[in-house]
Write a structure and sequence with these properties.
By secondary structure, the protein is of the alpha+beta class. The protein contains four helices and seven strands; from the N terminus they run H-E-E-E-E-E-E-E-H-H-H.
Length: about 140
């Protein structure tokens, strides 16, 4: 879900370099992941993850005037240009507090057949190629 959101916001990778090392019982191929690239929208990106280290998921988006921080992913914080202060922004997230974040509106859309914003099977096949490369699988 972290990659889905990052690529939804910044665009799918047009170029992607990946590196992975380590392994854990449930994923012996790798447990540490690092990479960088450029999206189809022209955004530069980088990522790292280490399943053997402490921490939480997160995304940071840098603009010319601010740093948007989603860590935890359900909270939005911002640092403005020229400042080091991190400010929390209030969100209308009552549904996310009452249900698993995102699940209420996603389920509602599914039930009323409003699937315009859903990934298609074709999209998922293409996304799986990206995720497989990041995970260290050879295609």
């Amino acid at each position: 879900h972290v990659l889905d959101l990052a690529f939804h916001l910044g665009g799918l990778p047009r170029e992607l370099q990946t590196w992975s090392k380590g392994g854990v019982n449930w994923h012996p191929l790798a447990s540490r992941f690092c990479g960088a690239g450029i999206t189809e929208l022209g955004a530069l990106f980088s990522y790292f993850a280490d399943w053997e280290a402490p921490g939480r998921w997160g995304i940071e988006i840098l603009t010319r005037k601010s740093r948007l921080i989603l860590r935890p992913m359900e909270k939005l914080q911002i640092t403005s240009l020229g400042s080091i202060n991190v400010e929390s922004l209030e969100l209308n997230d009552d549904l996310d507090k009452d249900f698993k974040p995102g699940i209420y509106l996603q389920t509602k859309s599914f039930l009323v057949s409003d699937t315009e914003r859903f990934c298609t099977i074709k999209d998922q096949v293409e996304n799986a190629k990206i995720y497989s490369k990041i995970a260290g699988y050879s295609l």
